[in-house]
DNA sequence: CTGAAAGCGCTTACAG
DNA sequence: CTGAAAGCGCTTACAG
């Protein structure tokens, strides 16, 4: 077996209480004692058992993070930010892949409770009532990322999706586009689907551009659906000059389908994406997009959560700023 | 406080031992007792405390997974596979982002020890002696992914990089290419850098194609380095007809740089990548590549690790098969 | 079939 | 400055 505090105590000829004190820098021992203890620790290669500690402290220094899809570029950027900050503050992170399914999410929530995590980060999904109740009963803080809830007391980290979408469309308008299509997200997604669509409509209205419903199609945020959406638009609204896609993946799908149809971007068609994934800079031509600082958002969420854990204060929601990254998929119409 | 086994015992009017028995389905109680206990559990909303359990069972049902970079597409595909399988077997996963740094890796290893994880998955980095010693002293199993070690007893899950690279180059040769450049990985990376380079050289030799050292340049597996590598090749070896890149990201960098130079792929230049990231199917034109089943590899690693944890058997290394995914970046020379 | 008790590896009043 | 003891929430012989 690995050595325990008992072995250290024996070797250093002190009580386990004293060993615990020097381990935790609590003071209340002579320098000589401290040295003897530290020596024993070194000699035995002793490492404290965080499980035993957790049991008594009721703190596990562990965060649970829930994603609908860990392997998406979107989630993993956030995860990176979370993990990095958590680690710097001596917390570990337990990842959970919910597949966006209610049943799986609930199972994970139970699990996180059993494992006594100190806090939860919940990303990119609607916080359903059932989830909320469960988390509430766990009596630990939670922070939402790129999401929101009906419960005002729940802190979140997100961009202003509506404003960001509006900015994207205005960017197009300012470059002379009037026939602007949108590939929106999933039809009844209130999280990011609806606000981004809203932003689109709002920008058009603001500039008194009539809304043509042929110009609005829906995808599911993924690549394939972007390809399909372009096919649809080409059939029903071939006069468009620009497309605003509600995700980079869909925008890249447009690029891909456009190339198959012999359409040149941006000469024949301008495209602006949404998210600012690393991906968006790797495609040809590099994608102009509305970027959200995902890694930073992960960091902020972790920071907020840890503060809340350690102080007991309930945190506020935070809106971080988006930015338009100008690359080469939007042409100015003259 | 959340209810404990004590509260359940009190409410059901039995001892905590009995509650523990029904909780763990150990038998040795009457049906009536079982019902009373279960009712109390339901009524109190009792959930066992995994930390207390872990302390006594010396099992935490937790796996530690170390990646040099969690947010890379490569790592997150693996993570997905690991997480999914682990979850199906009731294990959680703790993610660690080492940045490929020795210091950080060691710190994580300590952490995983303190947190008493049951096993470790170590991905995409060389298992240094120091790491090996630490893990060995933890007395828990470890499985390597896309990596290897000098220690024969350490199981791994990987493709045969040399063979895969050889296949990629032969694919090019079979399509009439003779002037084939390679963008290799980091110069002294023995893990995947060297074997892939080896495969390249071997394929050329096998087909009696003279080796031209201008044709071999190095990148660091990332996108940017692929762009730069093409620049270099264009200067020093403009006569090449095809490029084998040791990673999809670098291959995509080639696509990007090629487009900037007005070079058409595959008309002016053929490109084959390596990894089979989802990314490779999203670019224009879709990238032909040697695919490794990353998610599957994650799954197998988790499976192997858990078997080893639960049976105590030491596992064997596993070579999974790669495959060439034909898309549109390689042209047949006539 | 059931319970009292010891113990997992720690921390923390309490007493000296 | 230091130690004995209780206790965190469980599991598991042992005894009946």
UniProtKB/TrEMBL annotation, chains A, B:
InterPro entries: HTH_LacI, Lambda_DNA-bd_dom_sf, Peripla_BP/Lac1_sug-bd_dom, Peripla_BP_I. PROSITE patterns: HTH_LACI_1, HTH_LACI_2. One of its GO terms (molecular function) is transcription cis-regulatory region binding. Keywords: DNA-binding, Transcription, Transcription regulation. Gene3D superfamilies: 3.40.50.2300, lambda repressor-like DNA-binding domains (1.10.260.40). Residues 3-57 form the HTH lacI-type domain. Pfam families: LacI, Peripla_BP_1. It comes from the Bacteria. PANTHER family: HTH-TYPE TRANSCRIPTIONAL REGULATOR GALS (PTHR30146:SF109), LACI-RELATED TRANSCRIPTIONAL REPRESSOR (PTHR30146). This is LacI family transcriptional regulator. It comes from Paenibacillus durus.
């Amino acid at each position: 077996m690995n050595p325990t505090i008992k072995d250290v105590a024996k070797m250093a000829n002190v009580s386990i209480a004293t060993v615990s004190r020097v381990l935790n820098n609590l003071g209340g021992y002579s320098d000589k004692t401290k040295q003897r203890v530290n020596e024993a620790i070194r000699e035995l290669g002793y490492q404290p058992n965080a499980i035993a500690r957790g049991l008594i402290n009721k703190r596990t220094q562990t965060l649970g993070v829930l994603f609908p899809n860990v392997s998406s570029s979107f989630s993993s950027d956030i995860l990176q930010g979370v993990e990095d900050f958590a680690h710097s503050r001596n917390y570990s992170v337990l990842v959970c892949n919910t597949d966006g399914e209610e049943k799986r999410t609930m199972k994970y929530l139970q699990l996180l409770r059993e494992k006594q995590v100190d806090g939860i980060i919940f990303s990119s999904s609607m916080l359903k009532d059932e989830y909320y109740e469960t988390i509430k009963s766990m009596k630990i803080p939670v922070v939402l990322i790129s999401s929101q809830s009906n419960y005002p007391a729940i802190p979140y980290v997100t961009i202003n999706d509506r404003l960001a979408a509006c900015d994207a469309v205005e960017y197009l308008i300012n470059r002379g586009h009037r026939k602007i299509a949108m590939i929106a997200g999933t039809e009844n997604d209130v999280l990011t689907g609806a606000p981004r669509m809203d932003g689109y409509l709002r920008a058009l209205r603001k500039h008194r551009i009539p809304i043509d419903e042929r110009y609005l199609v829906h995808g599911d945020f993924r690549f394939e659906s972007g390809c399909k959406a372009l096919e649809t638009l080409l059939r029903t609204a071939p006069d468009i000059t620009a497309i605003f896609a509600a995700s980079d993946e869909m925008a890249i799908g447009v690029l891909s389908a456009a190339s198959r149809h012999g359409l040149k971007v941006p000469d024949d068609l301008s495209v602006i994406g949404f998210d600012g994934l690393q991906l968006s800079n790797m495609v040809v031509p590099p994608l102009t997009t509305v970027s959200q600082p995902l890694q930073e958002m992960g960091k902020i969420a972790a920071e907020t959560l840890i503060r809340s854990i350690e102080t007991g204060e309930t945190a506020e929601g935070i809106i971080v700023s988006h930015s338009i990254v100008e690359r080469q998929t939007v042409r100015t119409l003259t």
